[in-house]
Amino acid sequence: MENKQPAKNQKKQKEQLNTYAKFSGIAIQMIAIILVGTFVGVKLDEKFPNENSLYTLGFTLGSVIISIVYVIRRIIANSK
């Protein structure tokens, strides 16, 4: 009986580590999406200058929305 307990604990710890790894990966992907959107906006503002840096604002806001939708979909898919 005692042999089964450590196996259960190890399995539970492994599942927790896998969950942390999944969510850490999602966070890194979210940051990457936002950085790419911001970078594109900055480059467009350099090429087509305007008074309020509208490309940077628009692409940053758009990439934040896209990354939030992406994270929500991944969390729903992982919970099933």
The class by helix and strand makeup works out as mainly alpha
Radius of gyration: 20 Å
Counting H and I runs of at least 4 residues, what is the number of helices?
2
**Helix proportion range:** over 70%
Strand percentage lies at under 5%
List the uncertain runs.
none
Tell me about the largest β-sheet. Answer: none
Termini separation comes to 32 Å
Element order, helices and strands?
Answer: HH
Strand tally is: 0
Shape: rod-shaped
Mean pLDDT: 88
Write the layout of secondary structure elements.
Layout: H1 4-47, H2 54-79
Helix pairs in contact: 1-2
Question: Explain this structure to me?
Answer:
The protein has 80 residues and is an all-alpha fold. The chain is built from 2 helices and no strands. It is rod-shaped and about 65 Å long. The two termini are 32 Å apart. 9% of the residues are buried. The mean pLDDT is 88.
Give a short synopsis of this structure.
It contains two helices and no strands. By secondary structure, it is mainly α.
What structural keywords apply?
single chain, 80 residues, mainly alpha, 2 helices, rod-shaped
